[in-house]
Amino acid sequence: MNMRINNEDIVRLFNEMAAMLEIKGDSAFKIRAYQRAASTIEQLSWSLAAAAAAGDDLRKIPGVGKAISEKVQEYVSTGRVAAYERLAEELPPNVLSLLEVPGMGPKTVKAATAELGITSVAELEQAALDGRLAQLPRMGKRSAENILRHIRAQRMRSDRTPLGIATETCDAVTAALFEACANLVSITPAGSLRRWEETIGDLDLIAVSERPEETGPALAALPSVREVLVAGDAKTSVVVDPGIQIDLRIGEPDAMGAMLQYFTGSQQHNIRLRDYANRRGLSLNEYGITAVDGGATERFANEEMFYARLGLPWIAPELRRGAEELDAARNGTLPELLVESDLRGDLHLHSDWSDGKFPLEEMVEAVAALGYEYMAITDHSQGLGVANGLTPERLERQVGILKSLQERYGMTILCGSEVDIRADGAMDFPDDVLAMLDWVIASVHNAMGQERGVMTARIARAMENPYVTAIGHASARLLGRRDPVDFDIEALLQQARDTGTAMEINAAPERLDLKDTHAARARELGIPLVINTDSHHVDGLANRRFGVAVARRAWCGPQHVLNAYPRAEFLAWLRTPKPERTARFAAMAGGPTAGF
DNA sequence: GCCGTTTTCGGCCCGACTGTTTTCAGTCG
User: Fold this and answer.
1) What predicted TM-score, i.e. pTM, was given to this entire model?
2) Are residues A484 and A365 both part of a single domain?
């Protein structure tokens, strides 16, 4: 049994099988079945390989039936899947890389490989240049030129954009459009940005304007636009400067419900929702809802009305992933999700004593301005020399200053530290130094290439330290820049529960760490989550919205998040001896009976 | 390949845009 196969491997397997079946020209429904299974598996909070190894029935997963479950079993027990290998053998090498070129769909890839013998993107580029590509059926000079352009554009940009950068681009484009269009009423982001996915493919915007015909051309004319891909009446697509594609749709105020719903997706959510509607004799599109047997299209001003027409409560965009959320909506079991205003503290903050940009007082002042009840200053420990980490002597002085500041604020100011977890799992401060602190975050900042077992044992050891309150940004990933460290997340979360250690959701948009599926698993295990901004600057405090989004995507409500509790309850948890904190948290999260 | 308060067989989401056609196939989301 190979339990080291993770869900991502299985997702990739089925997505590649779907792509290969497309090129073969197999049934569109079979292809969709593989895609749906991949999408559902991607969202699981638990390891499919481990469940398969344990003999669980995988067919309980929606979209997974006999054939797919057998392929997972085969993959986990042998490390290979015969059906996948057969497909790969039937097709020319590298066909999947050809499919990734925009404009190259399954039909064109098939023709290019079969008739021109193309086996790589470089050969495709050559064929586009020398005119052979244009000779293919239903191709022509323009199509070949577009393919060539896409190959060159693709080389210049990475495939997906981290959420933080996409948000900045969205804000900039929106402001520029308002500047350029006097008649613009609103711009609403949809798509993966509205669902707060950690990375964004394209930016989907919906515009409402008094002069809708002017909006698309105005977008195409913005100075930051590098290229115009599509310019139609209903839709304009451009690429703007950081290399992000923007799809702009024109909406009408009295029909925004369907428009927003349609373009928020996800694709799997929409497929399932339309299937659900079809069974009730209704057909959905971006303009409204129509009875299958004819009649006028009903229009809806907002999404609440749109979902209500289907007999469903509104479903938060973060949950629209095409898996459990539709059943929950039908059964009335959608969760009450965390909102930004539920947060009552921030417990991971840096000042200019280490690598922050602002003095202690200014950080405290900025946090107090949010109306928080508590906070912790957590500058780096001594080992992180590049970040001007504090020696025990400096830390002791800082503690003294924070205690004097405390007298000026109604807010509780905890003395903390973000302490390095050394390569062997030892803490970067001795216990007698940690003992003077109220709040200790333990984080990995170096030796990130450690083998899985070593890294897991390293973090697990840190959790055993009686002074370590929480693990910070556990995977240490930087979206688009640094891969997560390799660890056994299930083992670590079990250890967190056993030791009474909280797990951070680091809200810095380049981190989002824990990620959504891991946070969901922590919630299931009853581990307290803490949403921190890890701010090095007063402006960083606004990043809490990204952390809240991760928690929402993990189906978390305020009861699952430590820093959403009132000060008295939070401090009572903190005063509880560490081994008893898991039980303490369970009592807090248990409901109104858990008082003081 | 999956699925069922219509179904264990016969269904399976929907539309915009482009470029190639001379009415629509292919691609995309």
Assistant:
1) 0.93
2) yes
